[in-house]
Structures are given as C-alpha cells and as structure tokens.
Amino acid sequence: MSKRITPLAWVKRLLWRVALLLALFWGGGIALFSFVPVPFSAVMVERQLSAWFSGDFHYVAHSDWVSMDEISPWMGLAVIAAEDQKFPEHWGFDVQAIQKALSHNERNENRIRGASTLSQQTAKNLLLWDGRSWLRKGLEAGLTVGIETVWSKKRILTVYLNIAEFGEGIFGVEAAAQRYFHKPASNLTMSEAALLAAVLPSPVRFKADAPSGYVRSRQAWILRQMRQLGGESFMTHHKLY
Q1: Ranges for the Glycosyl transferase family domain (predicted)?
Q2: How far apart are CA 58 and CA 126, in angstroms?
Q3: Within 13 Å and on the Cβ side, how many CA atoms surround 35?
Q4: Could you read off the pLDDT tens digit of each residue along the chain, which spans 241 residues?
Q5: Residues 6+ apart with CB under 8 A from 189
Q6: Which residues lie below 8 Å from residue 175, measured CB to CB, with a gap of 6+?
Q7: What is the phi/psi pair of residue 224, to 5°?
Q8: Burial 99-132 (b: 16+ CB within 10 A, else e)
Q9: pTM as predicted
C-alpha cells in the first residue's frame, strides 16, 4: 500500500525541485557566460515584457556585445571610479561600504543608499529581476559568490559593461556610444566615458544626451576620481584591459 503524500509534503517537494532547477539554470549560466557572449540579460527581458504588457510596442531593449578590446579603457575606469573603486581587490562585496550604507540608511530612511559592487550589479542584471527585496538580495549574494569564483575580474567588468542600462532601451556600452556619441565604444573619450558612468544610478531619470546640472557635477567628480586612480595605467596594472 503506497504512502499518501500530504499537501505540505507535496509543496515542500515541489519547492525543492524548483530550487534545484534554478540552481542548475543559474550555475549553467555562470559557467556558459564565463566565455560565451551574453545575448541578453534578465533585466533586459524584464524591461521588454513590462513595455509590452503596458501596451508600449515601440520599446526595444537593444544591446550589441563587444569584447573588452573593443571598449575604450576609459569606460572601464569610469564605472570603477563611479560605482566600485575597490573592484580589483574585493571578493564580490565591499564590507566597509555596506557598513556605511547601513549606518546612513538608519539615519535617513527616506534617502536609501546602496552599496552594491560591480560584481553584485552584474549578478543582478544578468540573472535576476530589478527592485528591492530581501529574497533578491539573498539570491544576488549567492550568485555574486559564484561569479567571483568562476569569472576573472576582467570578465565581470566586460559583462557588466555589455549589459548595464544607459537609457530607455539602451543596454551596453556599444549601444550607448552609438546612440549618444555616434561612435563605437572603442573611441569613447575620458569625458564621454565619465558622462555615461554618471547616469548609471538612474539611467531612465538621468539623460546622457540632455545632462542635468547634477549629472554634469557627477561627471566632473568621476573625472577627478579617474585621475586619482591613475588613469589608463590603473586598468593595465590590474589586468582589466
């Protein structure tokens, strides 16, 4: 006589199977994209589906994959200067930045500050959904460890630059360079790279082709940080280019 499976046991079994499938999917993705160009990201899919469901059939999430050799070294330096200056040294998480962000957020509940590294942003943009939740942050942490374990820092930066959102439907530095400067990403100047990096915190709100005073001031700050890091030599020294 077969043992009857209770509803709770059935749900637990289903959840374990779903978790196993997701682990295999994400693990396979991390392994595959360690050397294969990324055709699209989870955030790109999310943006496209959201546009379609809202009735906007003109929106097209667009990106053009390019290797690091086809990206100006200024661009990699700009996003490091703007988003994660300890990128070459940390193991996926900037503990000091996290502590500062937590302290700031306790004092300023209406002005939440993040502390995501480029590695965390890459994991989220590539394999997860946008938004804030403890579930997503937990999954992001696990995927970040996987990416940092399997990929080189150069690979993480390459993927990040190819899937980062720079405007409405504009994903990746090549699409951004063509859209805003009518040139390939390989020809971006120091100033242009800093301008693109300046819109990253909110690429839909901030416009690279119509920069506000805040964006211009952030661009100037990023340029100063780029010089302080050591310019192009920073990228070659850390084997990021």
Answers
A1: 60-226
A2: 23
A3: 1
A4: 456 778 766 666 666 666 666 666 677 889 999 999 999 999 999 999 999 999 999 999 989 999 999 999 999 999 999 999 999 999 999 888 877 766 655 555 555 556 799 999 999 999 998 877 788 889 999 999 999 999 999 999 999 999 999 999 999 999 999 999 999 999 999 999 999 999 999 998 999 999 999 999 999 999 999 999 999 899 999 999 8
A5: 72, 74
A6: 62, 63, 64, 166
A7: -65, -40
A8: eebeeeeeeeeeeeeebbbbbbbbbbbbbbeeee
A9: 0.89
> At residue 92, what is the residue type?
G
* Token duo for residue 96: 């000091």
Two structure tokens written together for 88 = 């070459």
Alpha-carbon span 175 to 189, nearest angstrom: 16
